[in-house]
């Protein structure tokens, strides 16, 4: 039987299991699970993971040191403590091994590489005239990221834009249209002329 040691730190009681015998182990589980952590969307973003040892009744009997491995180190790396770091876009398996038991969870990384606007060049419109823009989001490998949220904004008073990318001329002058996804921003100038 494993030996339990309790230690009280202020109001908290910590219970550690020492010498967990292999015959009492039913399975290994990696925490947090994919449903419990935020997506990896920035290069260098890091998150700690732990290996939980469970018995046949799914009771936690230890949180112990496992051997960690990434199935694709171009997507994620993992150190000896279980800290995962995002490297590039893609999906990789985070794998843990402890006393012959293994567990793995998928981790997806989406790092935005660029935002492409259409029209892609500066335009001229008249007051009260509209122009529809669209944006294509690509990851750091140049692959299209479908349905990624784009935030539209306008710098300057001459034009305005809604969150569908529809630009409307408001006053004579120049504004800058911005489309942002992740940390990437695409910009074009909007020159507004008087209505004739």
Describe this structure in words.
The chain is an all-beta fold and 196 residues long. The protein folds into 2 domains: 11-109, Sandwich (Immunoglobulin-like); 112-193, Immunoglobulin-like, CATH 2.60.40.1080. It contains no helices and 20 strands. It has strands at 3-9, 12-18, 27-31, 46-48, 50-54, 60-64, 67-70, 76-78, 83-86, 90-98, 101-109, 112-118, 123-126, 130-132, 134-139, 151-155, 159-161, 166-169, 173-181, 184-193. Strands 13-20-19-16 form a 4-stranded mixed sheet, with no helix packed on it. The chain has a 3-stranded antiparallel sheet with strand order 3-5-6, with no helix packed on it. Strands 4-9-8 form a 3-stranded antiparallel sheet, with no helix packed on it. Strand 1 (3-9) and strand 2 (12-18) form a beta hairpin. It is rod-shaped. Mean pLDDT is 87; it is low at 1-19.
What string, H for helix and E for strand, traces the elements in order?
EEEEEEEEEEEEEEEEEEEE
Largest sheet: 4 strands, mixed
- Can you give the mean pLDDT? 87
Low-confidence stretches: 1-19
Radius of gyration: 26 Å
> So how many helices?
0
Query: In the residues, how many domains can be counted?
Result: 2
- What is the number of E strands? 20
The percentage helix is: under 10%
Order of adjacent strands in the largest pleated sheet: 13-20-19-16
Q: Please give the oligomerization state of what you see.
A: single chain
What would you call the shape?
A: rod-shaped
């Amino acid at each position: 039987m494993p030996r339990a040691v309790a230690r009280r730190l202020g109001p908290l009681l910590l219970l550690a299991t020492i010498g967990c015998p292999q015959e009492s182990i039913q399975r290994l589980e990696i925490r947090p699970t994919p449903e419990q952590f935020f997506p990896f969307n920035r290069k260098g973003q890091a998150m700690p993971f732990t290996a939980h040892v469970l018995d046949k009744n799914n009771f936690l009997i230890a949180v112990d040191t496992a051997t960690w491995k990434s199935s694709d180190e171009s997507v994620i790396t993992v150190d000896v403590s279980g800290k995962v770091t995002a490297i590039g876009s893609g999906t990789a398996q985070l794998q843990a091994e402890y006393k012959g038991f293994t567990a793995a969870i998928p981790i997806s990384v989406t790092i935005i590489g660029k935002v492409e606007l259409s029209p892609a060049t500066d335009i001229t419109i008249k007051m009260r005239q509209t122009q529809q823009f669209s944006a294509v989001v690509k990851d750091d490998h140049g692959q299209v990221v479908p349905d990624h949220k784009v935030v539209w904004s306008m710098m300057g008073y001459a034009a305005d834009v809604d969150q569908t990318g529809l630009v409307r001329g408001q006053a004579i002058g120049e504004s800058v249209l911005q489309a942002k996804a992740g940390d990437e921003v695409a910009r074009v100038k909007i020159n507004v002329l008087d209505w004739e």
